Amino acid sequence: MKRRFYFGISTLLLSIFSCTTAQLDPASFESVPASAATSATSAAAPVVNITAIISGTGGQLGVYRFDGIGFKNVQQIPATQGDTFLVQLPQGEADVYYLGLEKKQKLPVVVGPEDQFEITADARTNRKAIFINSEWNRQYDALIKRIMANKREMQSIGQQIQRSANNDDALEQLRLKIKKVDQRRAQQVTDLEKEYPLLAKLAAIDNYQSFTSAPKGHANELEHYVNEFFSGADLSDPIYNKITYVFEAFRDFGNTLALINMPQEKVNAALDLQLQQIPDNSLTYKYALGGITLALQGRNHPSFIDYGKRFYQKYQDESAPYIQQLGRQVNSAQSLMIGAVAPDFTQRTPEGEEFSLSDLRGKVVLLDFWASWCGPCRRENPHVVKLYKKYQEKGFDILGVSLDRQKDRWLAAIDKDKLTWHHVSDLKGWQNEVAGSYSVRSIPHTLLLDQDGKIIARNLRGGQLDAKLKEIFGF
Question: Among 82, 113, 133, which residue terminates a domain?
Answer without folding.
Answer: 133
